[in-house]
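Chain A, query sequence.
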Amino acid sequence: QVQLVESGGGLVQPGGSLRLSCTASGSMFSINAMGWYRQAPGKQRELVAAFTSSQSTNYADSVKGRFTISRDNAKNTVYLQMNGLRPEDTAVYYCNALIRLTWRGDIRDYWGQGTQVTVSS
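Chain A, predicted structure.
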């Protein structure tokens, strides 16, 4: 059973920084893609930043230059360094991974439980 476990959310003042972590655990062959989404109250879930299956990175326009996604393949972990946080960044942040379970294929989409990020003075 694959699980994604997130950590690092919290309350921060505008202009502050937070670092989110997400670790994938369980039986898997490989991680094809991994990244972060967020959902603010009353809004749809949106992509924040992600490593694609071709290992390039995608960022939402609203976070470019402020957020940086990185990874540690040996630990099956992806990080999101968030600098210059704004009140509009307030949301629940979800880790997402596209995981290949066996060498034959069997690719499945997994989500973490979410971590709250609140930017407020």
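The chain has a mean pLDDT of 96. Residues 16 and 85 are 5 Å apart (CA to CA).
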